[in-house]
Design brief:
The complex is a heterotrimer of chains A (about 325), B (about 180) and C (about 100). Chain A is mostly helical and about 325 residues long. Chain A has twelve helices and no strands. Chain A is globular, with a radius of gyration of 20 Å. By secondary structure, chain B is mainly alpha-helical. Chain B starts with a helix and ends in a 5-residue tail after the last helix.
Chain lengths: ~325, ~180, ~100
C-alpha cells in the first residue's frame, strides 16, 4: 500500500507543479508577446502584473458554465478532461534530474508519443460535441493536422533512438553525458522535431484548429468558465511535455554544458533542466509572434512534402552511418 | 529496470478492465450514431491496452494506443466527420428479421470458442523468452530481436504492404475529372 | 496471475461482439469498426499465448497484424469515401451495382 500512497502523493505534487507552470507560462506568454510588439503587457495586478493570471483563474472559476442546448452533453463534458489528462499523464516518464522522476519506462519515448496522439480526440470531441459549425471545422482541421504531423514527429526522433539504442528517456540522457548531445549528432532531427512538436501542440503558426480570425475560436468556441480553463491548461501542459521531451532527447536533459556532471548537486541539475525547457518554450512563443498562420493546404503540403521526406532522409542517413560505424 | 507492472499484475485490474472493455464493445456495436461507436471503440482499445500490461507486454500496449487510437481511430473519426455521417438521414438501418438469426449465430460462435477453451489442450513447448529474461533485457529489445532475425522477411513484406496501402488510398479517394 | 481460460473467454466475447456487429449493422463504417474489434481480440489471444508459453512470437505477430490493419483501414476508408461520393450512402445493403 505504501507504493500506492507515494504514487498518489506524486500525482498530487505533479498536478500542483503543472498548474503552477501553467500560471507562469500564461504570464510569460503575455509578457513575451508584449515585448515583441513594443507593449508593456500586464502591469496592474500585483508587482509587474504577476498576479494577473491568478486573477484570471478566479474570474474563470466564477464564470457561468454555459452549455449549448443541442450540444452533446457527455462528449462536451469529457473533451476538456481528456485534453488535460493526456499530456499530464505523459509526465510520468520524464526524467527531471538524475534522481528525480516518476518511472523510467522501457519504451518511455513511445509512451509520451502515444499519449500525445490521444490528445487529438479531445479536440475532435470538443468540436463534435459543441454542435457548432466553427467548432466542427476546427476539429476536422485538427484531425487532419495531427495525423499529418504525427508521422514526421516520430520519424524525426527515430534517428535519436538509432544512435542511442534505447527508448528509455533516462538512459538517453545518461548516454548523452558520455559524449556529444544529440542536437550535435542529429541537427536535422532536432529542427524537424521542434517544428512538428509545435504543430502537434496546435501552437501558432500551426494554430488552424482555433484560428481566431477565421473560426471565432475554433474547437473551443462554445466552452466557457472552468472547462475553457482546462483546454487552456491542457495546451500549456502539452507544450511543456513537448519541450521536456525535446530537451531530454536532444539537449542533454538535466546535464549542465561544459561541466563535470558527476558531482553536481541535484538542484543544479534540476535548474539546468528547467531553464532548458523554458528556453524551448520561449522559442515556441517567438514562433507564434513572428510567423503568420499557414493556410490549410500549405500546412498539409509542408507536412507531407517537406517535413516527411526530410525526416526519412535523416533516418536513412543515420541508419547507414550507425551501421557503418558499428561494423 | 523498474517496471510499472507490479500494479498491473494484480488480479482485479484484469477483471475490471475486461468488464469495461466488454461493455464498451457492446455499446460500440449497438450505437446508432457512428461518432458514438468510434468513441466507444477508442475506450475499448484503451482498456485492451491496460490488459496488455497485465500480460507484461509493454511494447504492444503502447503501440496499441499509438497505432489504434492515435492513427486508425483518428482516421475513422475524420472520415465520419468528412462525410457528415452523424446526421439523421444516415442513421436508419433496415436489418430485418435476419438480425436475430445473426445474433444467434454470434452466440453459437461464442459457445464454440468457449467449448474449445474447456478442452484440456496440451500446451506446446515453452519458448526461449521466460518473463524474467524479458524483464531483464526489456520487452522492446526482446521483440526487436525476434522481429529482425526470425521474422525479417514478414517485416519487409509488411512495410511493402503499408506502401501499397498508402498508394491505394490516394488513388482510390482521388477525385477524377469527369 | 489471471488464469489462461479467463483471457480466452474474454477475447472470445470480444470476437463474438465483433461478429454480431458485422452481421447486424448495415452502416459500412460500423461494420469496419467491428472488424477492427475482431482483429484486436485475436491480437490479445496471441499476446496471451505468447505470455503463457514464454515466447515472443505472439507479440511479433501482433506487430505485423497492426501493420496490416493500418493498411487495411487506409484503403477501406478510401473505398468508403469513394462509394459515398458516388451513391451518397454508406449503407451496405444499397451497394449492389455488381449484382446482375
Amino acid at each position: 500500500m505504501n507504493t500506492m500512497l507515494s504514487a498518489i502523493l506524486g500525482v498530487l505534487i505533479l498536478f500542483g507543479v503543472i498548474a503552477l507552470q501553467g500560471l507562469i507560462l500564461v504570464y510569460m506568454e503575455r509578457k513575451v508577446s508584449a515585448w515583441m510588439q513594443s507593449r508593456l503587457g500586464p502591469n496592474r495586478v500585483g508587482p509587474w502584473g504577476l498576479l494577473q493570471t491568478a486573477a484570471d483563474i478566479v474570474k474563470l472559476l466564477l464564470k457561468e458554465n454555459i452549455r449549448n442546448e443541442r450540444s452533446d452533453r457527455v462528449i462536451f463534458f469529457l473533451a476538456p478532461i481528456l485534453a488535460f489528462v493526456a499530456p499530464f499523464a505523459a509526465f510520468v516518464t520524464v526524467p527531471f534530474a538524475a534522481t528525480i522522476g516518476f518511472r523510467d519506462l522501457d519504451m518511455g519515448a513511445f509512451y509520451v508519443f502515444a499519449l500525445g496522439s490521444s490528445v487529438v480526440f479531445a479536440v475532435i470531441w470538443a468540436g463534435y460535441g459543441s454542435n457548432n459549425r466553427y467548432a466542427l471545422i476546427g476539429a476536422m482541421r485538427s484531425a487532419a493536422q495531427m495525423i499529418s504531423y504525427e508521422v514526421p514527429l516520430v520519424t524525426a526522433v527515430l534517428g535519436v533512438f538509432l544512435v542511442a539504442g534505447t527508448l528509455s528517456l533516462r538512459e538517453i540522457v545518461q548516454l548523452q553525458s558520455q559524449g556529444l548531445w544529440y542536437v550535435a549528432v542529429q541537427p536535422l532531427g532536432f529542427v524537424l522535431f521542434l517544428v512538428a512538436a509545435t504543430a502537434e501542440s496546435n501552437r501558432a503558426p500551426f494554430d488552424l484548429p482555433e484560428a481566431e480570425s477565421e473560426l471565432v475560436a475554433g474547437f473551443h468556441t462554445e466552452y466557457s468558465g472552468m472547462k475553457f480553463a482546462f483546454f487552456y491548461l491542457g495546451e500549456y501542459a502539452e507544450m511543456l511535455v513537448s519541450s521536456c521531451v525535446l530537451v531530454v532527447l536532444f539537449l542533454g536533459g538535466w546535464l549542465i554544458p561544459f561541466a563535470n556532471n558527476a558531482n553536481v548537486p541535484t538542484w543544479l541539475h534540476l535548474l539546468s533542466f528547467v531553464s532548458k525547457v523554458y528556453l524551448i518554450i520561449f522559442l515556441m512563443m517567438w514562433f507564434r509572434w513572428t510567423f503568420p498562420r499557414l493556410r490549410v493546404d500549405h500546412l498539409m503540403a509542408f507536412g507531407w512534402k517537406v517535413l516527411m521526406p526530410l525526416a526519412l532522409v535523416n533516418l536513412l542517413a543515420t541508419g547507414l552511418i550507425v551501421y557503418w560505424l558499428k561494423s | 529496470m523498474e517496471t510499472v507492472l507490479q500494479y498491473f499484475s494484480i488480479n482485479p485490474v484484469f477483471y475490471i478492465f475486461a468488464t469495461l472493455a466488454v461493455i464498451f464493445a457492446l455499446m460500440m456495436v449497438t450505437s446508432e450514431n457512428p461518432v458514438y461507436s468510434a468513441i466507444f471503440l477508442v475506450l475499448t482499445f484503451f482498456c485492451l491496452s491496460v490488459i496488455y500490461l497485465t500480460l507484461e507486454a509493454e511494447f504492444v500496449a503502447v503501440i496499441q494506443v499509438l497505432v489504434y487510437t492515435g492513427a486508425i481511430m483518428v482516421l475513422f473519426v475524420f472520415v465520419i466527420m468528412l462525410l457528415n455521417l452523424g446526421r439523421d438521414a444516415q442513421l436508419t438501418e433496415y436489418a430485418g428479421p435476419m438480425k436475430y438469426l445473426s445474433i444467434l449465430l454470434g452466440f453459437a460462435i461464442l459457445i464454440q470458442i468457449g467449448l474449445a477453451t474447456k478442452v484440456t489442450f496440451s500446451i506446446g513447448a515453452k519458448g526461449a523468452y521466460p518473463i524474467e529474461r524479458v524483464n531483464e533485457m526489456g520487452n522492446t529489445e526482446a521483440i526487436a530481436r525476434e522481429l529482425f532475425s526470425q521474422y525479417l522477411y514478414p517485416f519487409e513484406i509488411a512495410s511493402i504492404l503499408l506502401l501499397l496501402g498508402m498508394i491505394g488510398a490516394i488513388v482510390i479517394s482521388k477525385k477524377r475529372p469527369d | 496471475m489471471v488464469p489462461l481460460p479467463h483471457y480466452l473467454i474474454f477475447t472470445a466475447i470480444l470476437f463474438t461482439l465483433g461478429v454480431i456487429g458485422v452481421l447486424t449493422r448495415r452502416n459500412a463504417i460500423i461494420i469496419f469498426m467491428s472488424i477492427e474489434l475482431m482483429l484486436n481480440s485475436v491480437n490479445l489471444t496471441m499476446v496471451t499465448f505468447a505470455r503463457f508459453l514464454d515466447s515472443m512470437d505472439g507479440q511479433v505477430a501482433v506487430f505485423l497484424v497492426m501493420t496490416v490493419a493500418a493498411a487495411e483501414v487506409a484503403v477501406g476508408l478510401a473505398l468508403i469515401v469513394a462509394i459515398y461520393r458516388k451513391k451518397d450512402t454508406i449503407n451496405v445493403d444499397e451497394m449492389h451495382i455488381m449484382q446482375g
